[in-house]
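Lab notebook, bench 4. Continuing the backlog of folding jobs that were queued last week. Each job is logged with the same field layout so the records can be merged later without manual cleanup. Today's entry covers DNA polymerase I, a 925-residue chain. Filled in by technician R.K.

JOB TYPE: sequence-to-structure
TARGET: DNA polymerase I
LENGTH: 925
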Amino acid sequence: MAVSPHLTLVDGSGYIFRAYHSLPPMTRPDGTPVNAVYGFTTMLLKLMADSASDHLAVVFDAGRRTFRTELYPAYKAQRPEPPEDLVPQFAVIREAVRALNVPCLEREGFEADDLIATYARHARAQGARVTIVSSDKDLMQLVRDGVDMLDPMKNKTIGPTEVMEKFGVPPTRVVDVQALAGDSVDNVPGVPGIGLKTAAQLISTYGDLDTLLARAGEIPQPRRRQMLQEHADDARLSRELVRLRDDLEISETLADLGLTKPDPETLRAFLSENGFRSLLARVEAVCGPAPAGTPATAAASPAVDDYHLVTTVAALEPWIAEARHAGVVAVDTETNSLKARTATLVGVSLATRPGRACYIPFAHQPPHSGTLALDGPATGPFAIDDRDGALALLGELLADPGVLKVGHNIKFDLHVFKGVGLDTVAPLDDTMVLSYVLDGTLHGHGMDELAERHLGRTTIPFEAVCGKGKTQITFDRVPLDKALAYAAEDADVTLRLHKVLRPRLLAERLVRVYETLDRPMVPLLAAMEQAGVMVDPLRLRALSETFARRMGDLEDEIHGLAGHPFNVASPKQLGEVLFDEMGLPGGKRSSKTGAWSTDAQVLDTLAGDGHVLPARVLDWRQYAKLKSTYTDALVEDIDPATRRVHTTYGLTTTSTGRLSSNDPNLQNIPIRSEDGRKIREAFVAPPGHRLVSADYSQIELRLVAHVADIKALRDAFAHGQDIHALTASQVFGVPIEGMDPLLRRRAKAINFGILYGISAHGLARQLGITRGEAGAFIEAYLARFPEIQAYMDRVKEEARAKGYVETPFGRRIPTPGISDRNPVARAMAERQAINAPIQGGAADIIKRAMIRLPDALAEAGLTARLLLQVHDELIVEVPKTELDALVPLLRRTMRDTVALTDDKGRTTVPLEVDVGVGGSWAEAH
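JOB STATUS: finished
OUTPUT FIELD FOLLOWS
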């Protein structure tokens, strides 16, 4: 029996605006914005790969002037012009459609919806099914037998039932309902006072619009009757505006819309021209295999995944040999916990080529159900037949220098392997880190998201194998057939991602960043996390008691100022006290809850105006945060086996390349406050050891002097001068000798504030001066150091042209929002662009120092080890006997890790390192 043709008609405008608003700004090499082009191309590629249609076309609006605007000039007149950075993308999007060999339809004088209606009618007349890809309510009038819609946002089919739920009438009466209700978005007048619900009731009662208008005098409600009689012509006009024309003359027949594969070279050329290297991996999915000699991509995969369960050492040996022969293997571990350092190894998966992977169970528990024939016993703890033998084989593979081990967040796996005695995993690559180096924070770097983005593949969710909520099971209880499918896919997808992402490093000139800065950090951070830092729980508990007493005293004082007790921790009660009872100025209510806002900014402003109660609340909140976040929580975070706290470092979360610290976060302990210092006193060295703190001195200011080529600042750093005193002298015209400390403080605020694009308002608040004074200070500063302004202008221009800025070491930092039409959002993006190369450059420098340090320690025969990194500071634990050797080695390693030089190789700004030693972190710092 012949299969009916299936035509899919894509509403091009819907795709365009969805793509534009879902992606941050992107530009191709010539500066043309392409974020909407990228999103549109991605969605259309996915539709072509997933759709069962054999006919396809994309339909566009040809312009704003149509027969409807001739009929009613106000039609859609109030719609804003499209965003400036979207306009040049319209033509490129049409190029994308043609590159994919998809018919591109549009007609002057008519809307895309009219073309869709016409082609749907012709296709149905020829016996074809029609799917309209859109969520536009105006197209719902076309739904009928053989014509449905697909909402691409919800991946939901819209048929007659869904139309009835939306409009309260069947599709054949949607036009009448819209004619009555009108549409404020499109400026369709309708009948005043009649909404969709009332319109549906009227049409259901009277059958159609003409009958309703003819019998309007019968309407019992006076106001409704009057409106229908007075605005009958508006209703008829509205019907002409919303009714889609399906009688246009068309040149393409159904046969002309047949879905055919794109020309691979044409498509590759288009993707390359626009910088869409990540989409090249999908070419084979729609074009078929590449010709001989064309580089393979990860998307070229077998039709059926070749996954195997390995339950004996004899079965494992061929996989080890296969990995050695390939020279690269993707590795992933399954555990019963997300606490990598203490998690139990449940299984290991390996992938040796795209589509071919295996899973080795080490600790699965019965009962299990599945359809696979298993080699091992079905009773007792289920695992490979020889655990020690299997681990020995894996250990040899992981340590083999001739086999590249690829993981996704492989730092997690390094901890798990170390837990079973496999200490060496090298060389290694990490697809999560690769993605971060290539795309920064433009998107997330989780495997599921990258698989969808680069491979067009939806991976098996964890909940599908382990459940969720109270019924969730640990992975060791997952049936082996499900475990195989899930775990082997993880390794397989990791290998496919590696084949897509690794080649981009060379093409995008990011090899140095990955190879010298980020990849070496993976095993180094794993070692630091393993080491942890010793913490004294007695000191922390004593601090918690002290903070609790201070909070209690402050509560008593706050209640006295308010005149009655209330819950200081309740923003609602606090707002009522401040603004309802005390009548303090400047209060703002939340638009959602109607409650007064009492955030830190509000309280800061009130305290700055001399109001005592909000100042005391800020003090109370500070102690509450210190207690809950640090003194209480850190005690719970101490590992009883090591008596240490083991943080987890994130390598792929910040926009500038800085590390993050979590669970617990050790990078946000207050530095300058006395209470923060007391918390650091609880971080101690073990007996016979000391902690050494090494901190780059004013590294961000030194980088500014270097990258902006500010001679006065470069000379000051070269001669070891007080940079803030010098700045004050230069800006305010006073001698350094005998300088007023207040002037130096103001210069210091400007020096550091300028890195973050500080405004006159921000500086005024920081220094407690008027905005006029602050603005004059900034103007004088920029006049004295014009190189700063030139640097800022240059960076903003670079960000707008490229969509990113670069650190002095080549790291790319995306700058979404740099061309935002909203001036506030744009100004914020500009400030971030100015600061990013400086903060990112400082992060790159300390990473280079960290990477060099272990080899320097080993060469010197020292057993000292790196424990923590907190932005510009390193914390090292060292035996007392090695202290004299370590301090100069540490200072030298950090100072000499990079030279800031000019184009002639001469040092422009020296790096300096401050080193302290003590029995605690506070004492060392």
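OBSERVATION: The mean pLDDT is 88.
SIGNED: R.K.
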